[in-house]
């Protein structure tokens, strides 16, 4: 009898990965491909959805051959994806109408501002569990319909359809048979009634989105059809937003369990169980996952837009380093930040502020500052932004976080991990699976097809791979946090209404 | 990788090998260090000589870096990049072996631990990234020594009865490491402890680090006091996977 495996597709912001996992949840093989980031104007960020689909088609056979297995040995495929990124395409030709607009894109700034004054703005916020912001898909869809001649009429006739990246991938994987999304991705559009778990007529009205163009909403763990492309003959068992997938991969199945994933941006999610908690401190209420036939689990989320992408900016735009990990090498050439702080409000500020008019600043510059100090300030920005969302989480949930579970590409950075434990004053632990997003998608898909029997079995796979302990002088922590907050205030009100 | 030229990767690896050595190196020594055929190595050396990157001593026939290279400096793979690029393979190695994993490179005559994955049993452990270990008494160190042509001989300090302190014995052991493609350490550094390690290669076969597992002798070794073959297999698989990601071709 040949051994079976589960494959995850992690369609991330910077790259797409396919990973084969074994029954113990261990990585067997990996294939990865970066895609092009398009920055056509300040604040605009786009991807070519066709390029991303072609990458998946290329990665699928590669990851199987690296694992030395055939399609018949794949029990299921699970998908995790960058969230809120939105694309519209022609139902007949399969060709996208323009590029996909990325979650970090702020072109809907003025639109969001105007909508904020409209009647029903408060109600839509309450229905969707989200503050009105450029971050979410709803305003983005409206912008596309407004700015492409004739598109609205075609959408109303159902000639063009839309979706987030999992919808786009599943539609292509199933040979255009399935136009579906899952509850976690749908909960990031502002169009979903987050309690009823279906599209809200009132929200659709508010944004002016024709229902005919939207995918069908399904449970995250269940049935998304069988692939005919990429992994022909294999069942697609699950789809989840990448951050929810990471929460699942970290086996945070119980209310009160939380994780933070450090990638392009960083996202702290706390499982709140069957209860939808509304935040008073700038956190989002979102769906954590839903197993078919069961009630959904919810989460509180602290979203930070720019963390790893600040390192990328340092590498690609400033060209001060040649690879992301070199930020640590450079930062270690100095003992402290030299009084310099970088607040990367490139897309405005997300949690806990939600200030879309904010823009980035570097403060405290003197002739003393070297590129080493700047590198330190880059990493400290991630640490302090984590502190702000953890503070909000502690206040909202009434629980106090006692350890922080972390994952994502930036957890390879030991200086950063030490900074995070230092500013939070709690231990930071990394599990024995750096690719937690993919693992979560694999777990979910494997559960859907019975490859894994239950959640408890998965929990037993979780082990500590590394742990960092706080070692910062409490007085220094206090003064540095105060400095950080003063730096943050300097980002506010930069973009003035036209 | 489309659009890359293997000969240039190998040329760079040869230059790094020469830069890391004490002075001049012979053709066969260079070829063996990089696991390249002698003929191939010779062709590349001649080309490098032509462009002034390498000089050949007329008397001994040995090679050394050329004057044209003096201002190019010598920097190996950034250690933080090595960790980032290895993390996906070090985790499964810890899971499969049930032991702790470390990755090391050479720093000033010692092994610098650049990555550490805890033994996956959820007992309390502390990170020892940044720790320095002896080259001659550890599996990681022996791998790093074995693939470093003509490096200075470390001081052979004795840690246990089994530590290799005789230079001839050590050089024999290193020859064995090169033949086998992996190294073992059995109670040579710490009593009751054993380890297995294999080389991580970058482009052109250049050894940029070593990855290994360590733990108690009775878990790592079989009844003949030799590392369990399955364990050796896991370590070598992980080393090969990282090497492939780093662009090594074989
Ligand atoms: N050693 C490191 N130190 C700091 N940042 C890093 C390091 N390695 C990777 N990164 C950053 O992490 C991000 C990639 O992480 P990943 O989890 O793959 O992101 P995503 O899933 O959002 O594409 C990049 O933005 C990169 O700049
Ligand atoms: Mg990701």
UniProtKB/TrEMBL annotation, chain A:
Q: What is its EC class? A: transferase
Which Pfam family, any one of them, does this sequence belong to?
FGGY_C
Cite the annotated pathway.
Polyol metabolism; glycerol degradation via glycerol kinase pathway; sn-glycerol 3-phosphate from glycerol: step 1/1
Q: Which GO terms describe its cellular component?
A: cytosol
InterPro entries, sorted: ATPase_NBD (IPR043129), Carb_kinase_FGGY (IPR000577), Carb_kinase_FGGY_CS (IPR018483), FGGY_C (IPR018485), FGGY_N (IPR018484), Glycerol_kin (IPR005999)
CDD domains noted in UniProt = ASKHA_NBD_FGGY_GK
GO biological-process terms attached to the record = glycerol catabolic process; glycerol-3-phosphate metabolic process
Tell me which residues bind ADP: 13, 17, 264, 308, 409
Residue stretches making up the Carbohydrate kinase FGGY C-terminal domain: 258-448
Q: Where does glycerol bind?
A: 83-84, 135, 242-243
Q: Known EC number(s)?
A: 2.7.1.30
The UniProt catalytic activity note for this protein reads: glycerol + ATP = sn-glycerol 3-phosphate + ADP + H(+)
Residues covered by the Carbohydrate kinase FGGY N-terminal domain: 5-249
Task: Please provide, alphabetically and separated by semicolons, the GO molecular function terms listed in this UniProt record.
Answer: ATP binding; glycerol kinase activity
- Summarize the activity regulation: Inhibited by fructose 1,6-bisphosphate (FBP).
- Give binding positions for ATP: 13-15, 264, 308, 312, 409
Q: Which residues bind sn-glycerol 3-phosphate?
A: 13, 83-84, 135, 242
Keywords, alphabetical: ATP-binding, Glycerol metabolism, Kinase, Nucleotide-binding, Transferase
Query: What's this protein's family per the entry?
Result: Belongs to the FGGY kinase family.
- Could you tell me which PANTHER family the record lists for this protein? GLYCEROL KINASE, SUGAR KINASE
- What function is annotated for this protein? Key enzyme in the regulation of glycerol uptake and metabolism. Catalyzes the phosphorylation of glycerol to yield sn-glycerol 3-phosphate.
- Protein name according to UniProt: Glycerol kinase
Organism of this sequence: Actinoplanes utahensis
- Which lineage ranks, top first, belong to the organism behind this chain? Bacteria, Bacillati, Actinomycetota, Actinomycetes, Micromonosporales
From TrEMBL, chain B:
Q: Which residues form the HTH iclR-type domain?
A: 5-67
Question: Which InterPro entries does the entry link to?
Answer: GAF-like_dom_sf, HTH_MetabolicPath_Reg, Tscrpt_reg_IclR_C, Tscrpt_reg_IclR_N, WH-like_DNA-bd_sf, WH_DNA-bd_sf
Q: Check the record and name the Gene3D superfamilies matching this protein.
A: 3.30.450.40, Winged helix-like DNA-binding domain superfamily/Winged helix DNA-binding domain (1.10.10.10)
Key words, A-Z: DNA-binding, Glycerol metabolism, Transcription, Transcription regulation
Classification via Pfam families? HTH_IclR (PF09339), IclR_C (PF01614)
Residue ranges occupied by any IclR-ED domain in the UniProt entry:
68-248
Q: Which domain of life is it from?
A: Bacteria
Q: Which GO terms describe its biological process?
A: glycerol metabolic process; negative regulation of DNA-templated transcription
Name the SMART domains on file. Answer: HTH_ICLR (SM00346)
Q: What molecular functions are annotated in GO for this chain? A: DNA binding; DNA-binding transcription factor activity
- Function statement: May be an activator protein for the gylABX operon.
What is the name of the protein in this document? Glycerol operon regulatory protein
Look up and give the organism this protein is from: Actinoplanes utahensis
């Amino acid at each position: 009898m040949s051994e079976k495996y589960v494959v995850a597709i992690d369609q991330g912001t910077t790259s797409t990965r396919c990973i084969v996992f074994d029954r113990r949840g261990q990585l067997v093989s990996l294939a990865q491909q970066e895609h092009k980031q398009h920055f056509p104007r300040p604040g605009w960020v786009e991807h070519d959805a066709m390029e991303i689909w072609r990458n998946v088609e290329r990665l699928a056979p590669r990851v199987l051959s690296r694992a030395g297995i055939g399609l018949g040995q794949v029990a299921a495929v699970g998908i995790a994806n960058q969230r809120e990124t939105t694309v519209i395409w022609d139902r007949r030709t399969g060709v996208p109408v323009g590029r996909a607009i990325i979650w970090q894109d702020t072109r809907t700034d003025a639109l969001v501002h105007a909508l904020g004054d409209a009647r029903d703005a408060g109600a839509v916020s309450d229905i969707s569990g989200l503050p009105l912001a450029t971050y979410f898909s709803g305003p983005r869809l409206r912008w596309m319909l407004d700015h492409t001649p004739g598109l609205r009429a075609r959408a109303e006739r159902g000639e063009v359809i839309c979706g987030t990246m999992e919808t786009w991938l599943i539609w292509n994987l199933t040979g255009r048979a399935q136009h579906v999304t899952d509850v976690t991705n749908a909960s990031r559009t502002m169009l979903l009634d987050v309690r009823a778990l279906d599209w809200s007529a009132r929200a659709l009205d508010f944004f002016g989105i024709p229902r005919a163009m939207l995918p069908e909403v399904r449970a995250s763990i269940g049935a998304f059809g069988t692939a005919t492309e990429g992994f022909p003959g294999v069942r697609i068992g699950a789809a989840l937003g990448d951050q929810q997938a990471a929460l699942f991969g970290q086996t945070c199945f119980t209310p009160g369990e939380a994780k933070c994933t450090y990638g392009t941006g960083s996202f702290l999610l706390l499982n709140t169980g069957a209860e939808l908690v509304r935040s008073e401190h700038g956190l989002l209420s979102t769906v954590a996952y839903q197993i078919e036939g069961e009630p959904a689990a919810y989460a509180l989320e602290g979203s930070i837009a720019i963390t790893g992408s600040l390192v990328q900016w340092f590498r690609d735009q400033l060209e001060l380093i040649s690879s992301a990990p070199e930020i640590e090498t450079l930062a270690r050439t100095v003992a402290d930040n030299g009084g310099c702080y970088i607040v990367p409000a490139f897309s405005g500020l997300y949690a806990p502020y939600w200030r879309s008019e904010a823009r980035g600043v570097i403060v405290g510059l003197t002739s003393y500052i070297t590129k080493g100090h700047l590198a330190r300030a880059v990493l400290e920005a991630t640490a302090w932004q984590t502190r702000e969302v953890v503070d909000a989480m502690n206040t909202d949930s009434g629980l106090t976080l006692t350890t922080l579970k972390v994952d994502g590409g930036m957890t390879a950075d030991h200086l950063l991990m030490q900074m995070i434990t230092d500013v939070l004053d709690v231990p930071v632990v990394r599990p024995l699976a750096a690719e937690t997003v993919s693992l979560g998608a694999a777990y979910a898909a494997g559960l859907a097809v019975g490859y894994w029997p239950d959640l408890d079995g998965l929990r037993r796979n979780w082990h500590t791979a590394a742990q960092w302990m706080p070692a910062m002088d409490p007085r220094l922590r206090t003064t540095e946090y105060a400095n950080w907050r003063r730096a943050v205030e300097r980002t506010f009100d930069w973009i003035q209404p036209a | 990788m489309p659009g890359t030229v293997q000969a240039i990767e190998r040329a760079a690896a040869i230059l790094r090998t020469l830069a890391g050595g004490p002075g001049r190196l012979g053709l066969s020594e260079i070829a063996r260090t990089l696991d390249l055929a002698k003929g191939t190595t010779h062709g590349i050396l001649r080309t490098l000589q032509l462009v002034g990157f390498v000089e050949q001593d007329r008397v001994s026939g040995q090679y050394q870096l050329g004057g044209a290279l003096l201002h190019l400096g010598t920097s190996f793979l950034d250690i933080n990049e090595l960790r980032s690029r290895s993390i996906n393979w070090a985790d499964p190695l810890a899971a499969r072996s049930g032991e702790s994993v470390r990755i090391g490179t050479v720093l000033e005559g010692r092994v610098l631990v650049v990555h550490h994955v805890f033994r996956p049993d959820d007992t309390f452990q502390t990170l020892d990234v940044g720790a320095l270990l002896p080259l001659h008494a550890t599996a990681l160190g022996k791998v790093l020594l074995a693939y470093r042509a003509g490096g200075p001989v470390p001081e052979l300090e004795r840690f246990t009865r089994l530590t290799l302190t005789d230079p001839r014995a050590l050089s024999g052991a290193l020859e064995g490491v090169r033949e086998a493609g992996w190294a073992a350490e059995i109670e040579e550094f710490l009593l009751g402890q054993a380890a297995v390690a294999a080389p991580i290669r970058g482009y052109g076969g250049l050894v940029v680090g070593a990855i290994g597992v360590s733990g108690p002798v009775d878990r790592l070794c079989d009844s003949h006091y030799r590392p369990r073959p399955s364990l050796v297999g896991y370590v070598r698989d992980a080393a090969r996977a990282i090497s492939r990601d780093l662009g090594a071709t074989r």
